[in-house]
Amino acid sequence: MKRKDWVKVYLSKEQRRLLERIAESLGIGESEVLRKAFMDYAEKLSLVTEKVHGKI
Predict the structure, then answer these.
(1) Cα 44 to the chain's mean position, in Å?
(2) CA-CA-CA-CA dihedral for 36, 42, 46, 47, to nearest 10
(3) What DSSP line would sit under 19-33, residue for residue?
(4) What is residue 4's DSSP assignment?
């Protein structure tokens, strides 16, 4: 079983409040909000499809 990697993210007070509001409105954890945002951004940059098709 692969172990999970940890990433520490530093947010400003305003960013933290936004993260809390988004997580609460979606009913999911803050880490899941950040994970989803990261994956959406990677997909927008076509990094996800490149990885799937072996171009990276």
Answers:
(1) 13
(2) -120
(3) HHHHHHHHTS-HHHH
(4) P
What's the pLDDT tens digit per position in 11-52? Answer: 999 999 999 999 999 999 999 999 999 999 988 888 766 565
Q: In one letter, which amino acid is 9?
A: V
Predicted TM-score (pTM) of this structure: 0.71
Q: Which helix (H) or strand (E) holds 43?
A: helix 30-44
CA angle 31, 54, 5 (to 5 degrees): 25
Task: Please provide the distance, in angstroms rounded to a whole number, between the alpha carbons at the two ends of the chain.
Answer: 24
Owner of token pair 């989803």: 36
Instruction: Write the CA distances from 48 to 22, 27, 33, 36, integer angstroms.
Output: 24, 26, 18, 13
